[in-house]
Write a structure and sequence with these properties.
This protein is α+β, with helices and mostly antiparallel strands. It contains 18 helices and eleven strands. It has three domains: 2-78, no CATH class; 88-195, Nucleic acid-binding proteins (OB fold (Dihydrolipoamide Acetyltransferase, E2P)), CATH 2.40.50; 221-514, no CATH class. The strands form two sheets. Strands 1, 2, 3, 4, 5, 6, 7, 8 and 9 form a nine-stranded mixed β-sheet that branches. It has a two-stranded antiparallel sheet with strand order 10-11. A hairpin with a 3-residue loop joins strand 2 and strand 3 (113-125). The chain crosses the membrane at residues 27-45, 57-76, 248-268, 280-302, 322-342, 349-369, 381-406, 418-444, 482-500.
């Protein structure tokens, strides 16, 4: 429990540091002073003199909580970019530059453009080659084929990602450590296939999987499966992407912790009815691991997979640590490694979706189960239980991430709820059949083709539902900032109530829990 509060304090410190213009050394000095105060407080102050101060939060020295907050502030400030003459961004002044760089991401190739992230090697200046460091965002015309590991010589206008005085956390590129960009330069390929052998193999498997999907499944259903299963969503037609966006189900295509958490939560709650708890948890973790490799093991997907795995009840493996604590601790560890993640949309969706699934799903679905059992019969409740799990998981995940989605796009579709209920419950089946179609196509092509036939109706159903709801006249309306703040307040209130409920359940004595079979620790 103390680690839970200390991690929360560290995370809060990162947020506070973005608002207070204090230097890293100032935050570090505050942390040292408070650590000394915490040592003194722990040795000379009693925390059990009053019932209020005997609560778990106050069993930790208050100064130690403040020290963790200051350490969060120090970590945020120390992660701010400091550009020197050895950095590529030093020369990003809009002038024409000649640089050599290596492709370090999976290139996104579409009909309109090709995008990749490159790691700078050298820059030509005054006839001399100067070693430089830093990452570069590269855009090329559509149809321009490049591959991971290629070494390119680029000549074009080199621009900075950040404006003068702009904080790094406000730019999605700067948050990922990309401080320079070059759009549509002249390109010469100097070498092929360098870089990590493992990542080259991963991307080759990904390319082969995409070829299998497009060979065996008609378009545009093939593009949808490629987006869902492999994260290659730039082949989806514009009209279809707009349909998914309009009816509020675009998150089905975009890989994030939201759908990974939802899938893991659904798998664990459905498989535990047929498998032992340990095997059910292992099945969910294995599914997430395979999925992560399929989409290329990109850093954002790996983070989402780790967060999504935390929606699996830890007590299935005999541990006394609940996923709520694990979620907060792992989030703090991720933020310690990269404080800018706090403003990353994928991280926010991952955390909120996992938190909602961990704290809210089981109490709600058990209440509904007992309600149906009381009103009708136990057999009726058992028959409805899988449907209850699917619907509750869908609604909880959608509710938990609603403030983030509304902040991104302040539009509500009156068809969003219906579209989500119609589509999300079939996603585990769609991903399972699609995954087996690809896997078996590598080893037993006829079996893989059979699964391709099996998954096509689900893909076609997805597209038909999205088009039906997405192009309904007068189907969406703008919401004000007040509504977004109200939705945030509602989500925070609900998560707080269910979190307190879960913590209270943990503190029940074992004898009381054994007498109360409805006690849920997830």
């Amino acid at each position: 429990m103390p680690l839970f509060w200390l991690c929360l304090s560290f995370t809060a410190g990162i947020f506070v540091a973005a608002l207070l213009p204090l230097s890293a050394w100032t935050w570090l000095a505050i942390a040292v002073i408070l650590l000394v105060a915490a040592w003194l407080e722990g040795h000379f102050c009693s925390h059990r003199t009053h019932p209020l101060l005997s609560r778990p939060l106050f069993q930790i020295p208050i100064a130690l909580i403040g020290a963790c907050l200051a350490l969060g502030g120090w970590r945020f400030q120390s992660a701010q970019p400091h550009i020197s003459a050895d950095d590529l961004a030093w020369y990003a002044d809009g002038e024409s530059r000649v640089i050599t760089a290596r492709i370090v991401s999976y290139p996104e190739e579409s009909a309109n453009s090709t995008r990749a992230v490159l790691q700078a090697i050298s820059l030509y200046q005054e006839g001399q080659e100067k070693p430089v460091r830093g990452n570069l965002d590269l855009r090329l015309p559509g149809g321009f084929h490049i591959s991971y590991g290629d070494v390119l010589r680029l000549e074009g206008s080199l621009n900075a990602v950040l404006d003068d005085g702009q904080p790094a956390f406000q730019s999605y590129l700067a948050r990922d450590g990309i401080l320079s960009r070059m759009y549509y330069p002249q390109v010469d390929t100097l070498a092929y296939g360098s870089g990590s052998i493992f990542m080259r193999w991963i991307y080759q498997v990904r390319d082969r999987a995409q070829d299998i999907i497009f060979d065996q499944i008609p378009f545009p259903e093939s593009s949808l499966l490629s987006g869902i299963l492999l994260g290659i969503d730039w082949e989806i037609p514009d009209y279809l992407e707009e349909a998914y966006r309009s009816c509020g189900v675009l998150h089905i295509i975009a890989i994030s912790g939201y759908n990974i958490a939802l899938i893991s939560g659904l798998i664990i709650r459905l498989t535990r009815r047929f498998l032992s708890p340990g095997k059910a948890g292992a099945a969910a973790i294995l599914t997430i691991a395979v999925y992560t490799l399929f989409v290329g093991a990109e850093p954002a997907v790996v983070r989402a997979a780790i967060m999504g795995s935390l929606s699996i009840p830890a007590h299935y493996f005999g541990r006394k640590v609940i996923p709520l604590h694990s979620l907060v601790v792992v989030a703090a560890i991720m933020l310690a490694g990269s404080p800018m993640l706090l403003w990353n949309i994928g991280f926010q969706l991952s955390f909120l979706a996992c938190l909602g699934l961990i704290t809210m799903v089981d109490p709600i679905q058990q209440w509904l189960y007992h309600f149906i059992e009381k009103k009708f019969s136990e057999g009726t409740a058992l028959w409805w239980q899988p449907i209850i799990i699917l619907v509750v998981s869908t609604l909880v995940a959608q509710f938990s991430v609603s403030p983030v989605l509304l902040n991104l796009n302040p539009v509500i579709s009156i068809h969003t709820l219906a579209a989500n209920l119609a589509l999300l419950p079939i996603q585990p089946m769609l991903m399972g059949l699609g995954g087996m179609a690809v896997i078996f196509s590598f080893i037993l092509p006829p079996v893989g083709k059979f699964f391709s036939y099996m998954v096509w109706p689900f893909l076609a159903y997805n597209n038909r539902v999205a088009v039906h709801f997405g192009f309904q006249p007068k189907g969406e309306f703008q919401v004000s900032s007040v509504f977004i703040w109200l939705s945030l307040a509602a989500v925070i209130s609900a998560l707080t109530v269910f979190t307190i409920h879960q913590m209270s359940a943990l503190k029940q004595p074992k004898t009381e829990q054994s007498r109360n079979p409805n006690t849920v620790i997830t």
